Amino acid sequence: MAVSTFTPIFHITPNQSNSLLFSSKFKLPRNKIKPNFTKARVFAALSDPFVLQIAETLEDSHSSSPPHLQKLRDFSSESLLSAHWPSRKDEPFRFTDTSFIKKSQIVPISTPPLPQSLNLFDDSEETQFPNLVIVDGYIVDSVSNVSGLPDGVFAGSLSNLDSEVIKKRVLDFVSSSDGDLFWSLNGVGAPDLVVVYVPEGCVVETPLHLRYFSDKGEEKESNKLPVSNPRLLVLVEKGGEIGIIEEYVGGEGEKCYWTNSVMEVVVGDGAKLTHSYIQNQSLQAAHIKWTSVRQESTSTYKLIEVSTGGKLSRHNFHMQQVGPDTVTELSTFHLSITDQTQDLHSKLILDHPRGITRQLHKCIIAHSSGQAVFDGNVQVNREAQQTDAGQLTRTLLLEPRATVNLKPNLQIIADDVKCSHGAAICDLEENQLFYFQARGIDLQTARKALIFSFGAEVLDHFPNKSIQKKVESHVKQLLVPSLSSQ
Amino acid sequence: MAVLNYSSPSPPSLISSFKNSTSISHLFTVPATRRRSFPSFRIKSSLAVESPAASGTSNGGESPKILLQVKDLTAVIAQTEQPILKGVNLCIYEGEVHAVMGKNGSGKSTFAKVLVGHKDYEVTGGSIVFKGENLLDMEPEDRSIAGLFMSFQSPVEIPGVSNIDFLLMAYNARRRKLGLPEYSPIEFYAYIMPKLEVVNIKPDFLNRNVNEGFSGGEKKRNEILQLAVLGAELSILDEIDSGLDVDALRDVSKAVNGLLTPRKSVLMITHYLRLLEYIQPNYIHIMEDGKIIKTGDISIAKLLEKEGYKAVSAT
Ligand SMILES: Nc1ncnc2c1ncn2[C@@H]1O[C@H](COP(=O)(O)OP(=O)(O)O)[C@@H](O)[C@H]1O
Ligand SMILES: [Mg+2]
């Protein structure tokens, strides 16, 4: 096989965090008492007062904390002491402006939703699947229904998990240090850990629907930003299979809030996970989401993402290969119909032979101050021989000043690999438009169909057709105003 | 963009007075400059093959009308202004089958695409009148709805748009124009199923994206399926036979023949006699360097097959 080196290869410059300075100071032994943010202010010169302030309010927001989350909270707090709020000078945020969050008054959501607000979710669209309703990070059992799951499969709050063995196994995978500042903030602020556990060899036929609602939102004028920190861990044991649908929706009206979500995934030997992720937040919301995936040998992980909501939406995706012969498929579609930022930062790290990765990322920017950011990192390390990695990104800019920042970013150290990538920014293709016209379809209808079909290439990957139809009609509806202005 | 602006074309009275008056059966050559008089030569049933034109007179004695009249058509590539069509003349009556042959690069596909209004080309002179209307004034979609259909030599792939959605969109565009209620997907299925049989296409084909991953033969069948669904008074078939195996060629030709009526016409572009044996033309034209340099009957294609283009070349 050909030895390949691919351009553009970007090496991320180490970010300017002062973590080095702090690493010695705060290398606390495990189980040490939680760090004290007030004290930390003494080191104000080296800490970020804004980060400390959020961390502090998040800590204070917990009245009682489940004992099994204490360790996560402590370690997350610790790492926040040395973290600073990202600026445009930090490479991972070069194109993503988070000042919208920073300028707001951040208010942690410290209580589960009130019973009266739950009526809303009762009436909300039915789902035909076993489902968990998670409101502002809290599971609401009264409107959830997981009765359709096979024996041995668990979906719910960690505190309701009976088996100590499984509990311990799950907790082993909860990490306080995988991500960035937002990951750590989630670690401090998460009110609960939602667990999905699929035992060895168990194939779950129907998908599990996780419906995330944002209940507490503020008007734009208030300058307040309620923050919730949903946290999920999915563990599919050896040979198990499941489909997960993660759907995020805002409440009534275009409210301001911040969802800071973390999902950790472990796909065991030969196991399969299909992950549908639909982000349909309020257009005034901040939505920061982490998905961190560990793939053991011969496992398969597929992500189908459609993100259309949020004023600022960022998906950090990590895949770490921990065994050979893995299959990883990412199909993502981002749509900016107003002055939104849609950001995907993906990192696939291959350390074992014969991994296959397929990544397709598509964006449509339909607004002159809309923006898309894509940083697609693939690392094929020395041991990852015979890796087959493909990445393709295409962006459709429908307005003159719409912007996209693309950074395909392949680092290949192994010498026997097959890697390809392509990035294109395009307008609608004349030849395709003409094909419609030649069959009697007017230009505007043709444009609509082609714009929609651009995203359909990703939507087609949804394993569940009813979900696909639902997302399709939502995307169509969003595109209508921007289409009729053409 | 079209630089010509004809409001209402004058019917060629000379031609109508000659119609049906002459029949020919042999190879003949008309210098391009004198082409204006050519359409008066009408072929009836004198060709060895049965052609739809032969039944033109059975229509209550009503004489066939001119469907398409192209005069001194010149066109350039819009981007580079490179001249491609250098004075094309052609007249097609209702019910006639015409074939255009010619070397690669002689301008056959360009001619076909100019007829349907492709934006890559700019018409710099001459006229195209279709059913008495100036085609150059019409948008491509209106030309299609008016009854002009071109099957593309290389149909473009449209990922994300399923064949069935595309066909329904096109069919309903027509129905809207005709003031008819649009078809629902279910009504449309009922309408389309027999059409699938005509071109020997499996129903699951409808769920695939337009031309995406289709083999060469499937693309051609799909073009004919579109023709069968949408209907057309003049079908322009650009190398519908290229890349087809024997079975596919037979299916496709059968489908085209099945669609022909005494009033419908075909203009096909081909390199091979084989197709002409299935869909028998009244006229064969040879195109060279952007002009039709010869017109004749099937014998011209036979000569071509035997001796190559030098035998029919102008130079
Ligand atoms: N869109 C275009 N851009 C550039 N050159 C073109 C284009 N269309 C046609 N041509 C050129 O015009 C000439 C005639 O092409 P075409 O009509 O496709 O020939 P034919 O179908 O007879 O083989 C060729 O030299 C071809 O390269
Ligand atoms: Mg051609």
From TrEMBL, chain A:
This is Protein ABCI7, chloroplastic. Pfam families: SUFBD_core, SufBD_N. Residues 226-454 form the SUF system FeS cluster assembly SufBD core domain. It comes from Daucus carota subsp. sativus (Carrot). NCBIfam families: sufD. PANTHER family: PROTEIN ABCI7, CHLOROPLASTIC. Residues 62-209 form the SUF system FeS cluster assembly SufBD N-terminal domain. GO terms for biological process: embryo development ending in seed dormancy; iron-sulfur cluster assembly; thylakoid membrane organization. One of its GO terms (cellular component) is chloroplast. SUPFAM superfamilies: Stabilizer of iron transporter SufD.
From TrEMBL, chain B:
The keyword NAD does not apply. GO terms for cellular component: chloroplast. It holds the Pfam family ABC_tran. GO terms for biological process: embryo development ending in seed dormancy; thylakoid membrane organization. Keywords: ATP-binding, Nucleotide-binding. SMART domains: AAA (SM00382). One of its GO terms (molecular function) is ATP hydrolysis activity. It comes from the Eukaryota. SUPFAM superfamilies: P-loop containing nucleoside triphosphate hydrolases. Residues 68-314 form the ABC transporter domain. This is ABC transporter domain-containing protein. It comes from Daucus carota subsp. sativus.
